[in-house]
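Hey, resending since the last one bounced:
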Amino acid sequence: MAQWVPDVLGDEFEQCTLPLGEDDQGEAVATLVRALPEAAQPVSGWERFVRRLRGRPTTDAPPLLDGVDVLYVHGWSDYFFQKRLARFWSSRGARFYALDLRKYGRSIRDGHTPGYVADLRTYDEDIAAALDVMAEDADTSRGPRRLLLMGHSTGGLVLSLWANRHPDVADAVILNSPWLEFQLAPLRAAIAPVVELQARLRPLDAAPQIDLGFYARAQAEVADADDLMEPNPAWRPTPAMVVHAGWLHAILDGHRMVGDGLAIPVPVCVLLSARSVLPTRWSEELTSADTVLVVDDIARRSLKLGASVTVERVDGALHDIFLSRKQARDDAYARLERWVTGWVRSRPAP
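The structure tokens again:
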């Protein structure tokens, strides 16, 4: 039985620790966070009267995403802290969960190399443990529930590969700027063998740190003063966490598999910024573009995920679409709701 305790994000959230055994760095755990939606308000007598006048149903209709579970996975050098995103899903009737993968965020333990794995399939254990707890937490009295996967950046790569290996589990996949291709794509063929050799001989060797902190600054510049997202700098550091050879080899191997073509059998929605900017020096344009990925490359690579892929390009968006300036963020949420509404209405309830 999962032991839920209060989460660092406050009263709206709880967390539970998912034991994953031990590796050569000690105890391995993942952490599952769940949103606690407010109880739905009953329809008042006055509201029923107004609905009757307008020819609308006078009883409480089930919310759009009733019976849907959302599992969110964060990106590199990151963890879950996006309260607004959780509220979007909860307010529409979904049960929202977020997973801090092993050695990230809430799951970091003494002796860990933050973010390090040598094979992205290792995360199958984290995801399986999360789904077990979500199933234990579910009310299935009205039938089975639908699973919607949502991943950002590296989390988008992890979930894409997972959904391809587990074709009968998820019902839809939503990707927020997924890292599906290396930023230096033309050089990947030359880089990959060097990284592979280094990963075999010295997997914990570190690559040069090239993060100048501009992405974090751009997020701070566009943040809403009345609804700040305040990440823990120990869990989401600037500059970003150190990149190690073994981890980079795992990422390049994942990119190769996507490039060879996946066969995700369910609908996929990919949200991307409309443009990329190379962050060599600070400028205002970094507050309205993806400074991490080459979004045109990602858009093309997205079409290799499966047979039903929608690509949404959001003007003015940052790398994390949902941490962009309000105008771009509102556009992204509107596109997301439109896609989800179409998905729900096109697929009969189980």
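The chain has nine helices and nine strands.

Sorry for the duplicate.
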